[in-house]
Amino acid sequence: MEATTFALVAFLVFCTAFLFAPLGLGGGMFFVPIFHYLAGWEINSALLLVSLCLVGSVSFGGSYEHRKNQQYSPEFLKEHLWFPIVGAIFGVAVVFLIEDALNEVFKSLALLIVGWAIYRMANRISSKETPQAKQGNGETNLVFLRSGLTFGGMISSVMAIGAGAIHVPLIRENTNMEMRKSVGTSLNIMLFVIPVAVVTHATSMYLLSPDQWNFMIEERVWFLLVFAIICSILGSIIGSKVAIKYFNQKVLNSAFLVLLIVIWLRYFLDLFV
Is-contact 38 169, C-beta < 8 A? Predict the structure, then answer.
């Protein structure tokens, strides 16, 4: 990889972490296309593993700031955390079952997930209510909540994302948690779920895909991954710190929406043009 490409990848990883952590998202929706389109990596288990490592780094940095400011719910985690963990393990099995068609399946799912995130974000921006003002109804549907958390965990493994786009609105709709606390809780879900997905992915890759495992242990790949992890941790800590104190949430949401639309269009062109 050329030095300019390396620097651009590192810069975009930092910016993604800076932008996503304040929203309770892991950044996988951008990490995969950054490595796929800029670095030229195939969409396979190795790329998903790298993206999950970066999502885990974002959740570490973002959850640290939210924990420090008491912007999360330990009670929610204690009661519901096992459901996304089980979903993440199941999701790894799905990845290896569909590996030959992973590129097409991934991009098709991305159109749906990113499209849904665009719809939610556009509604949030156009709403006259502030994110903090809009509360859930407080009535918890446990079956719906836990099913959604399990699905989010599965999508984390299949799409190499933190699933905050699923978890944050799910928590908001089923609890009285305000926005900042929902974001912090989503990041703390990732903090536990993503390491499980990473270990399960890595073990499965070692046993079932030796070629991809050999690619992962190359020195140049490890050097890039370690540097990218450092960038993502710094970006998420700085982004969360700035967002908690200063950010205009609507401006942040608007920037996020524009980037989502660009990613959605690129996947659409790859599949249908």
Answer: no
